Amino acid sequence: MKYEGKTVLEVGERSALAQTVAHFKPVASTIIGSGDDSAVIGLSSNRFVVTTDSMVEGRDFRLDFSSGFDVGYKAAATNLSDVAAMGAQPVALVVALLITRDTKLSWLEDFAKGLQSALDELAPSAAVVGGDLALADQIVVAVTAHGDLLNQKPILRSGARPGEVLAVAGTLGKAAAGLSLLLHEDKSLAASYPELVQVQLRPRPPIATAVSAGASAMLDISDSLALDANRLASASNVSLRINSSDLQGYVAVLEQAAQSVSARDGKNLDPISWVLFGGEDHGFLASFPKGSVPAGFKAIGSVEAGSGVHLDSEPLAAKGWDSVSS
Amino acid sequence: MKYEGKTVLEVGERSALAQTVAHFKPVASTIIGSGDDSAVIGLSSNRFVVTTDSMVEGRDFRLDFSSGFDVGYKAAATNLSDVAAMGAQPVALVVALLITRDTKLSWLEDFAKGLQSALDELAPSAAVVGGDLALADQIVVAVTAHGDLLNQKPILRSGARPGEVLAVAGTLGKAAAGLSLLLHEDKSLAASYPELVQVQLRPRPPIATAVSAGASAMLDISDSLALDANRLASASNVSLRINSSDLQGYVAVLEQAAQSVSARDGKNLDPISWVLFGGEDHGFLASFPKGSVPAGFKAIGSVEAGSGVHLDSEPLAAKGWDSVSS
Fold this sequence. Notes:
The structure is a homodimer.
Chain A: H1 8-11, H2 13-21, E1 30-32, E2 39-42, E3 47-56, H3 68-84, E4 89-99, H4 105-122, E5 127-135, E6 140-148, E7 165-169, H5 174-183, H6 188-192, H7 194-201, H8 207-211, E8 217-221, H9 225-236, E9 239-242, H10 248-252, H11 255-265, H12 272-277, E10 283-288, E11 298-304, E12 308-311, E13 314-315
Parallel strand pairs in A: 4-5, 9-12
Antiparallel strand pairs in A: 1-2, 3-6, 4-6, 7-10, 7-11, 8-10, 9-11, 12-13
Helix pairs in contact in A: 2-4, 3-4, 5-7
């Protein structure tokens, strides 16, 4: 174990990169992978989609909660969900990674394994095709993800029409519940609900379900159901009505965890707040013509003329995660 | 001036982004710009090139040397040069920007103006199509740039063949000279050589020249002529010979600045070291069949059988900038 316990700085950039890149594997669309000035990616048509998202140590993840594998997995998953939300099949990721002087080579390799594992599990059509490694005061991961529209039109946020059905795919509130458990001073709580913690650390958006959904409008629920529903309503110039009865299943699976937190804090935590206002599940919110909701999506409401979002008859505020002011 | 002197945090993410994104303009290939989950980019064929590079405050730039405009300009220029080095025409940039709690909105706007200005001047075919803004302990810019191969084959580092001519486009050593002047304790030095400082702060790689060059092999000179020539030699499995006589013009324009530094330091600084071992000019090193060196490129040597790089008859070590260990 030549490199055991060594930092990336001690090993040197070139050796460390060689060790790390070895964990990535090309896919059919990877015409030229990493090693030249740019990568070259093949598509089924002459258009591609692109999105970028960054994660910052101390704000988006903590090294005492997340392993390198977790950080890599989540960085891939959150960007793949933005590609899939356009109805595009993920094909390529490039990764700008900033590490610190103390970052171990083993962390870097673990990070690479997490990235590749997310691709294997969520989007086997995609590869890491390039990246950049540099030093900073804290770990930062900036992933840019690319998708192939497969000769289909992109699914925009602006396509929802009155009379359509509002539906979601993926989990709702589990990532927020997991974060509450991780942050709780009673450290035994997180260990009691490993599935919720797992969704926070390694979200598993149903990428293939979204890509093939054929939605009229779609976005990925990154900041909260309430906030992202308001974005969809605004972009489509419609009103969205969410039925609380359709959210009961999402609430039910969080009730026990909410009770555990409530018992320790001596106050009543309603798990509906995780479902409505918690982010980071990275599921999908979409609208479909009546009768066209595909398998993997669950109807939670309707698209109507007007503006804003209502939960039953009450206005639902655009409350959720804000990457700058939170 | 509603926002005068305010930080991005005080203004809030949404307002700050609206103010900033207003400085970007779409181009013909921008099918869907920023505002949805991903952007959609049109191409002339079903392949695209992609590259990513990051710049970190305190390592790649200093806020006392560089304005927001400079940082934006350089972040665009360095990534555009990686796209052009593949023989691809730049079409789209996405920008992950990390700012601090103290970053003023005016800095952010200035940064956006610098990005757009680099596109206007160096690659008017390209647009900023998306981004991500978040908080960190220092400013970090991670740009991912995309190019259209215009139905041509990509120009790789591996295409140089014995018998070809080695040539460069762009400046050599000016960026390194500019950095030496900026870092010198005699602060009057930088003011005496504004052109050299300008190349360091806002490099202007000849993008269009590279895209249309039709080279056999090409890369952008980011880390140093010596280091990047060794990369080209290694990828092409050839030996490169650089003629010192062909570098005289590059050295001559740096001599006065070198003398000024030498006079203050009481030792003899040979400006050839800036030309050979200085990075950040982001010009291009390429090989061409004999008689095919296009306008804008200047022959500096030859491609031969063998390995490694020689300056006249002496081996030229792969010395230059290393983003992790430097």
